[in-house]
## 1
Amino acid sequence: MKESIEILDNAIDCLGEPPFGEGVKRAAFKLQELEKVDCKDWPDDLRKMRDELLEDCETLISLMREPISHGNVDTQMHATEKNEVEQRIAQEMEILRARLKG
């Protein structure tokens, strides 16, 4: 669990780094390292939280790579979805770290 806490600490540190709004994106890339961590001894709820966090990171990364069509509605929907995923990642990181630390 110590390795997971370090990964989460490093990812959370990204949140406060400039430029504003880019921290969650950098954190999402760092959080992918959680996939390599052996979590078979973790309680089921923590494993589920980890899996959901990794899924949200994958979603955000794919949204960042996805070309935005220039229609006004599409652009707004894309931005809204990206913001929602970024907020979830920020919250999930904090919760998982707190739970792992006990």
Note: The two ends are 11 Å apart (CA to CA).
## 2
Amino acid sequence: MPPKGRSWVSKSEGARSGLDEEELPNRSAAAIDVKDVPRSSSKSSSKVVVVVVVVVVVVVVVVVVVVVVEVVVVVVVATAAAAAKVEVVVVILEVVVVVVEE
């Protein structure tokens, strides 16, 4: 609500209503009144957008890290399995060579 003696009539509204410019309230006082109006709805909506973006980024980063860790584990396990197979083949060949030599 406007303070006593002030009005929130804009210049264009005054022109539409037939008021002269002299009858309109002081423009600086009207600007002060507009600044006093709470704007929590726009601030809270921007905060919600920021929170949603942060949550999405965190989820994407976690998913990427999990996928990279899984790939590294698979590669390490596959490499170890391949190395183990090679060692088994080498041991078998050594046994065959020893048996053949005797």
Note: The helical segments are 11-17, 27-36, 40-101.
## 3
Amino acid sequence: CVRAQSSNYFKRYHTARLDELRIFLENEVWTPCPVRDDFSLLHLQEFRGLRNSLQQYAGVSPVQVPSRGSGSLDGSSIGGSFFTRYTTSESPFDSCPDIGSLSQDENILDVTDYTSGYFSEDSDEENTELTGGVTAKNHRNKRRHDCSGPLLTNTTLTVLRHCGKYLQMSRLLRANSTEVVVCLSQLFDYYLYAVYSFFASDLPAVTSSSVLSLKLQATLKRIKESLTPNPKEEDAIEYKVGEPSMSVVVDLNSNETLHGLSERVVAVESLVFLADQFIFLKPYLEHLQPQSHTLHVLYNQSVSVASEVRRPVYACVAWRAVDIRQALTLMMRVNWEVKDVESKHSSYVDFILRDLQIFSMRLEEISKHVTISQPVMDTLWANIAQQLADIFVEGFSSAKKCSNGGRGLMQLDWTQLVSQIEKMCSLRPIPHKEFVEAYVKAYYLPEQLLEAFVRDHNEYSSKQILALVSCACQTNKKLRQKLTSLIEDQERLGTR
């Protein structure tokens, strides 16, 4: 029957598109595609026939989307004669324009971005006329990535184009709408999985637990199990696609580029943009498939965690901002048994600040070439703040003995660092500040409160807590043994 034939065709078509998406991802160099500032999926030709319906279900006012195309593809113009337009060797999906005709059918490009390679000599001449003789060359240095448009790649556009084609088919063949919703979710899932696997692969194991939410971990595991092939599976399962490999052109190892920060930003923010577009589609998809479990999983497990990918990916840059080993080595050389409270901070603080200043300068240089939004900037500095807090507590825990003057020096060092970080970023208060301050203040706690601190604060490692107990209980061997036994019990029970 027609339904079975269309279903089989769509399955084959979607399988081919997944393979194509893998190839796109493996060849993607993660540079921004220069789209107009207000770009959305409504500007794509594949969504022209759905614009009114999408806007209606999204509850937004119809927007005039500029296009040089002459014919309307709105749903009202499509009737029973739709399939007569195609021969037996063609399909509705073959009508997508090629790249050469995009300028005639779409208006998605940022025509003021003269640095891109998307324009021909004709477009340069046209822009010269429109600006009264001001040439692109004169603007090239003035405007590089000074636009406020969304960050997305050619692969992001490809995913959106596939979504438009799939929705066209679901509108024409409503019986296949269930499969369409499943396949739309797989396109998003695969893009999310690729971005994470490409750009969070260099995340240290000790850091991953603190920057990876349980929800994101569960989502990544589900995608891997449902979409990527398992060598142990003997029978082929529908819609399996190989794990993508990042292009060798992408360099994530250079200190000067902050380990590929530009590419990481484009990748993650393009994922966030894609999630926003799927949120816009949600009311229409719920109209196609009311109370759909697939839609529930898509929006509650995949789309909702897109922004959470920022933290682990940008943590891969943040943990390299400071030479951790050298910083800890310098902290071990500090004399924490000074009698009087020092008026000047320790030299290791200056070492850390020099590293942060270099990071800040490189970050400023990168921001000249790719837009770094405030959420991205805040995530970067929040990750750095967490890294610094871990360094300080670990360094303080290396002290074998510590006097009151030494504790005062610890507070002075941390206060100095925080005051300088506040000049480099806009985060207020500095995240994880309390993590360090609570550890230092614990040295002053009386016996009963110290025991409660050890029992309640499992965010510190056993080594760090043992060092605290050793210093705080230098003259009370009985209490030291009691608290040491408590820490060992916590380790045995897995509560620390």
Note: The CA atoms of residues 382 and 431 lie 6 Å apart.
